[in-house]
Structures are given as structure tokens and as C-alpha cells.
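Figure 6 in text form: structure in, sequence out.
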């Protein structure tokens, strides 16, 4: 059994979702070559879902970075 890992950052999760997008795209194209259209549709659905997740994560990371920059400019400290 795998050891539990510590929680990751938004950047870590975003990278995993990006890899999942690339894999879903690979499956979609490979399946279309073999004319496995049911698998193509499942891959398209996975791409769609992962794309929405990636977009939300990207936006969250961008907003987090902007807030941290503003806090730094104002000399505020975040309490962890």
C-alpha cells in the first residue's frame, strides 16, 4: 500500500490535471485511429471535464499570486 502523501499545492494539482489532459487527448486520438468511437466520446468528456478543472485551478493560482503580491506590497503578513 502506498504511503499517504502530504497535501500538495495548487501548482502541484494543476500539473497533475495538465498531465491528465494530455493523456485524455492521447487516448482520444489513438481511439479515433482504431475507430473506437465509444472510447473517443469518453475521452472527449474527460478532456472537457479536466479542461474546466484546469481553468478553475489556473484562475485560483493567478488570484492567489496577485493577493500575495498585494499583501507583500502593503507589508501584510499572512497568518498560517
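Output sequence:
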Amino acid at each position: 500500500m502506498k504511503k499517504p502523501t502530504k497535501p500538495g499545492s495548487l501548482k502541484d494539482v494543476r500539473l497533475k490535471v495538465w498531465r491528465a489532459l494530455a493523456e485524455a487527448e492521447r487516448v482520444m486520438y489513438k481511439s479515433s485511429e482504431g475507430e473506437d468511437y465509444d472510447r473517443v466520446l469518453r475521452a472527449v468528456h474527460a478532456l472537457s471535464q479536466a479542461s474546466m478543472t484546469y481553468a478553475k485551478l489556473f484562475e485560483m493560482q493567478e488570484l492567489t499570486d496577485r493577493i500575495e503580491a498585494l499583501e507583500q506590497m502593503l507589508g501584510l503578513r499572512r497568518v498560517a
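Caption detail: DSSP finds two helices and no strands in the chain.
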